[in-house]
Design goal:
This protein has about 240 residues and is α/β, with parallel strands linked by helices. The chain is built from nine helices and seven strands; from the N terminus they run αααβαβαββαβαααββ. The chain has helices at about 1-10, 15-25, 30-45, 65-70, 85-95, 135-145, 170-180, 185-200, 205-215, and strands spanning about 50-55, 75-80, 105-110, 120-125, 155-160, 220-225, 230-235. Strands 3-2-1-4-5-7-6 form a seven-stranded mixed sheet, with helices on one face. The chain is globular. The mean pLDDT is about 90. This is tRNA (Cmo5U34)-methyltransferase. One of its GO terms (biological process) is methylation. GO terms for molecular function: methyltransferase activity. It is an enzyme of class 2 (transferase).
């Protein structure tokens, strides 16, 4: 997992981190709704008002998973993991602004940097999987998460799926979304070229389910969709102590 994760972290340098908050909300129509529903799905499984420890993987960029979930459930505490220092700086600043720093452990690195005996009640992996090259890297991060979850614990997985070029209508609509927010034709074409070359999403919803199954999770339930983006909740399968 280290090589693919390091390459993904290098993509999110200081320049990209600085524009992330605005651009992610354009690229993903329904950005806030996805995070709000993710928190609701986790609360539906864990129970309203129940104390819990949540592992937030890929928490850089302002930590919207933490901010949204913390507002819904005051008894939840978080471990925020991200290998990009520029992205994590944004999250630390937001957590301090919202008074959430005391509820959050910051880990600059990967899931593998966590103690082997660390156990969590739930986890999120939002906007990460499609940045990791190849199925082996994707399975590795999911297995690392599964290995640190209690049996039956929920994982919220969200990110792009489909091979972008295989969905020309969705790709065209994605470009129109940028035009809707003032992007020029040249800027849209540049962004289209970047997305076609710079990410490797699972190629279908079935591929997402297969990755989760191989990592030790039950079949997922999709609760959000927006063009290429999907969000699912899957429970860690009981009896697979190593996450596989």
């Amino acid at each position: 997992m280290a090589d693919g994760t390091s390459a993904a972290a290098r993509k999110f340098d200081a320049d990209r981190a600085g524009e992330y908050a605005q651009q992610s909300r354009i690229a993903l129509a329904g950005y806030e709704a996805c995070h709000e529903l993710a928190a609701c799905m986790l609360a539906a499984v864990l129970g309203s008002g129940t104390p819990a420890r949540l592992l937030i993987v890929g928490a850089g960029g302002g930590g919207p998973e933490i901010v949204t979930a913390a507002a819904l459930e005051p008894g939840w505490r978080f471990t925020a993991v991200d290998p990009s220092s520029a992205m994590m700086d944004l999250t630390i600043a937001r957590l301090e602004q919202d008074g959430l720093h005391d509820r959050t452990e910051i880990v600059l690195g990967t899931v593998d940097a966590l103690p082997q005996d660390a156990v969590y009640d739930a986890a999120t992996l939002i906007g990460v999987l499609h940045h990791l090259p190849g199925d082996a890297e994707k399975r590795a991060i999911l297995q690392a998460i599964a290995g640190r979850l209690k049996p039956g614990a929920p994982l919220v997985l969200a990110g792009n799926h489909y091979a972008y070029a295989s969905q020309p209508l969705l790709l065209a609509a994605w470009g129109e979304r940028w035009r809707q927010h003032g992007a020029s034709a040249d800027a849209i074409e540049a962004r289209r070229g970047k997305i076609l070359q710079g990410a490797d999403p699972p190629h279908s919803e079935a591929a997402v389910a297969a990755l989760l199954d191989a990592a030790g999770f039950e079949p997922p339930t999709r609760f959000f969709s927006s063009l290429f983006w999907g969000a699912w909740l899957a429970l860690r399968r009981a009896g697979s102590a190593d996450g596989a």
